[in-house]
Design brief:
homodimer, 190 residues, mainly alpha, Tetracycline Repressor, domain 2, elongated, DNA-binding
Chain lengths: 190, 190
DNA sequence: CCATTTGCCTAAACCCTTTAGGCAAATGCA
DNA sequence: TGCATTTGCCTAAAGGGTTTAGGCAAATGG
């Protein structure tokens, strides 16, 4: 009988595609086995567990996002960079909702350390070089931007802004304008 | 044999407690049956499905959050109100992580319409009465605040800000200061 | 070309979901 | 109080996901 050519990498890629097509909660070892037309148990030579698969998809998504971010930031600064990175998150979530959902998984400390998580905060910090913030405000601003990007995209994805005026795109643009203004005029310590 | 006295309401309450104790993904009809020392099938007289249970927990959490918000906003305006409502979300998520996770469930349009969701946007809008914003900026600001509250709390809950200086509380305070400043100086249309 | 490694298989145990049908406790009405 | 009805929890069973153990055949390599 011919072999299917399974590898951990191919399984995680296919799992990510499955997540985008059917939702991250539909990602199961069984569904993946069906997709490769292979028996379920066969996947356990390549995956430690179902959790392992999900973590793999999360790490893949974080890498892809970081790669896109790095490309988007190249040659940009200030508001330009802010908008570019913000759109990376929003567009990625729109194109890959399952992968994006996976990226929200709570990782174990080890997995988190091995993830592209630090690249993400580095990128946000890079944007802030175009503004005049010093520590600890810079860290506060990194956390604010992370919160807005993640919060907005996740509310948009769960349908919070649909079917109500104004358009989500309009709010997004306006919010990025507002964040830029805020970063240029970060309030002094109270 | 004595009866256990199950009702839909009690089941959903217990499910919410279970979520807070063990995580929302550990909420199953089976686990709930064990908690009441009852056979699994018995719960299906009170719950349509496992999904129904989860939706019920989400709706409960949204109600509780809205109730806390209404209490916190009473008699407050401006920055005071902003801080009070923001802390409602953050504190609730800290005290009830499982319930908070449930509240992020993507609801069906019918469930969403029957939920306390609109109370939440009304509360945020109420805060903005203390600032000088007119439509459509007010809606943009509502969406920004929703994004920051949800985004920050969810990043904090998933461990994003732990084990790194400065303290999360410090960033939270600073971010709320910054949002207040931003709302007082919302940039004019570009 | 044969030995070893590797990959996918069958089999089986365990848990969660959901429906169908039954018996006993609670309720309500005379 | 006594009986009929309703209601609540039960047993049974089917279906699907996870995971481990052990086996055979295909690929690999000396």
């Amino acid at each position: 009988m011919a072999r299917a050519g399974l590898t951990t990498k191919r399984l995680i890629q296919a799992g990510a595609d499955l997540a985008d097509e059917s939702g991250f909660d539909q990602v199961t070892v069984s569904a993946l086995a069906r997709r490769f037309d292979v028996k379920v148990a066969s996947l356990y030579s390549h995956l430690k567990s179902s959790q392992d698969l999900k973590t793999g998809i999360a790490l893949l998504a974080l890498e892809e996002l970081a790669d896109r971010g790095a490309t988007a930031l190249a040659g940009r600064a200030g508001k330009d960079a802010l908008i570019a990175l913000a759109n990376v998150y929003r567009d990625y979530a729109g194109e890959h909702p399952g992968r994006y959902a996976a990226a929200q998984l709570k990782l174990t400390p080890e997995a988190a350390a091995a993830s592209a998580g630090s690249r993400h905060s580095q990128m946000t910090r890079a944007i802030l070089r175009g503004y005049d913030l010093t520590e600890p405000d810079q860290t506060h601003a990194v956390r604010l931007l992370g919160s807005v990007f993640h919060g907005y995209v996740s509310l948009e994805l769960s349908g919070g802004f649909s079917h109500s005026a104004p358009d989500s795109q309009e709010s997004w643009t306006s919010i990025l304008d507002a964040l830029d203004a805020l970063l240029r005029n970060w309030p002094a310590q109270q």
